[in-house]
Amino acid sequence: MLNNNNKTKIKTLPLITFEAGKLTDEIKLELIQKLTNLSAEITGIPKESFFISIREMPDENVAIGGITVKEIKKKFVKTNDRRN
Question: Would you say domain 15-59 falls under CATH 3.30.429.10?
Answer without folding.
Answer: yes
